[in-house]
From TrEMBL:
Protein's UniProt name: L-fuconate dehydratase
InterPro entries per the UniProt record, alphabetical: Enolase-like_C_sf (IPR036849), Enolase-like_N (IPR029017), Enolase_C-like (IPR029065), L-fuconate_dehydratase (IPR034610), Mandel_Rmase/mucon_lact_enz_CS (IPR018110), Mandelate_racemase_C (IPR013342), Mandelate_racemase_N_dom (IPR013341), RHMD-like (IPR046945)
Pfam families: MR_MLE_C, MR_MLE_N
CC cofactor: Mg(2+)
Catalyzed reactions: L-fuconate = 2-dehydro-3-deoxy-L-fuconate + H2O
Source organism of this protein record: Streptomyces broussonetiae
SUPFAM superfamilies in alphabetical order: Enolase C-terminal domain-like (SSF51604), Enolase N-terminal domain-like (SSF54826)
Length: 444
């Protein structure tokens, strides 16, 4: 594409909330009544090609307006930025935003401000992939290893991963990529589903959805646990009976337990043949996760969806605290930081099984896992992407699941663009849905 003088001309934000708490979709022991929400951003330009960059970060209701305000605080760093430079090197934007000497104080590189950076950075990658006329997974997989390495911030990582080691991983990762791409396009990427397992579902709904998941081709399901041990033992037995012995069963405590409690609870549930225990304790407790992992083996320990940044992932891996890395497409600083996480996991030989669900997380994270398969790890063995069957109809390029696999997206971009009618209906508090609710419903 020939160079232009086009620049970013607008940064539009939206507070979008879906009333998922009404049906207890998304309910777990720590978050019993979430309203799945997105702090959503659109980068508009004067390029004349019609392309926009769409991005968001995921929240669960109240406080989404705070997340939107954090994105708006970045507007001054974006307006007027040359489009060609932004798309040629998104890493420059990432470093400019994480390096802002005043906004950085609010983290550094963690929490609401860092999630805002992730939303904006993801929007930039969406724009870059659209202008390249490629889905993001292919845009990344086609890139030269040297360019990918330049997208990664190696500050505070070099005791675990150096740029030279990352480059070697990427060069070796390209071997056999052509054949893997053919298999990906033909078969897709393995998925598991959490849809049967929300804590608010009754036994009939759990068993019905678990059996349906197996019929739909899923070879792993996940249940939420952590509210009541006796009830969790019973629910796990019901799920195992519904799916049979050949399907993996994972459970997720959503950070509910103390370390000793996590060990005791996991051992009690292990009789149902658990594959992993997810977020058994505080996501910040590296040593706690390591202690749990030692005590509950062969049940695997999985975590990462609430890890603040690449440094936390580095420590989890260095401490031998995880068997499964669960990156999130929107919690850390966007694609750039998730590239670091994928490379760290490859360096330590730990599989990545991304967190998804939420609002649009399935749409985003599929691209990162597919890039990992094609250009980093080179395998889908013991690797699955989470899938939750709701809210996909609000996206212009929703995920497609076929026989328990994510179908490789073909539309250019990061699959992040929401339907205009969904934005108009669910923008809070004045969208057409929320405007019809009484004050109690609007603040529930």
């Amino acid at each position: 594409m020939p160079p232009t003088s086009a620049r970013v001309t607008a940064v539009d934000t939206y507070d979008i909330r879906f009333p998922t708490s009404r049906e207890l979709d998304g309910s777990d022991a720590m978050n019993p009544d979430p309203d799945y929400s997105a702090a959503y951003v659109v980068l508009r330009t004067d390029a004349g090609d019609g392309h926009e960059g769409h991005g968001f970060t995921f929240t669960i209701g109240r406080g989404n307006e705070v997340q939107v305000a954090a994105i708006e605080a970045l507007r001054g760093q974006l307006l007027g930025r040359p489009v060609d430079g932004l798309c040629a090197d998104p890493g420059t934007l990432y470093r400019d935003l994480t390096g802002d000497s005043q906004l950085r104080w609010l983290g550094p590189e963690k929490g609401v401000m860092h999630m805002a950076i992730g939303a904006v950075v993801n929007a930039a990658w969406d724009l870059a992939a659209k202008r390249a006329r490629k889905p993001l997974w292919r845009f990344l997989a086609d890139a030269e290893p040297e360019w990918i390495v330049r997208q990664v911030d190696f500050r505070h990582l070099t005791d675990a991963l150096t740029p030279e080691e990352a480059l070697d991983l990427l060069r070796r990762g390209r071997e056999g990529a052509r054949a893997r791409r053919g298999r990906l396009v033909e078969r897709g990427y393995p998925a598991y589903t959490t849809s049967p397992g929300w804590l608010g579902y009754d036994d009939d709904k759990l068993t019905r959805l678990a059996a349906r998941a197996v019929a739909d081709g899923f070879r792993q399901i996940k249940l939420k646990v952590g509210a009541d041990l006796e009830d969790d033992v019973r629910r796990c037995r019901l799920a195992r009976a519904a799916v049979g012995p050949g399907v993996r069963l994972a459970v997720d405590a959503n950070q509910r337990w103390e370390v000793d409690e996590a060990i005791r609870w996991t051992r009690a549930l292990a009789g149902s043949g658990l594959y992993w225990i997810e977020e058994p304790t505080s996501p910040d407790d590296i040593l706690g996760h390591a202690a749990i992992r030692r005590a509950v083996a062969p049940v695997k320990v999985a975590t990462g969806e609430h890890a603040h940044n690449r440094i936390v992932f580095k420590q989890l891996l260095q401490a031998g605290a995880v068997d499964i890395v669960q990156l999130d497409a929107a919690r850390v600083g966007g694609v750039n930081e998730n590239l670091a996480v994928l490379l760290l996991a490859a360096r330590f030989g730990v599989p990545v099984c991304p967190h998804a669900g939420g609002v649009g997380l399935c749409e985003l994270v599929q691209h990162l896992a597919m890039f990992d398969y094609l250009a980093v790890s080179g395998t889908t063995e013991d690797r699955v992407i989470e899938y939750v069957d709701h809210l996909h109809d609000h996206f212009l390029d929703p995920v497609v699941i076929k026989d328990g696999h994510y179908t490789a997206p073909t539309a250019p971009g990061f699959s992040a663009a929401m339907r205009p009618e969904s934005i108009a209906r669910y923008t809070y508090p004045d969208g057409t849905y929320w405007a019809t609710q009484d004050d109690k419903e609007r603040t529930a």
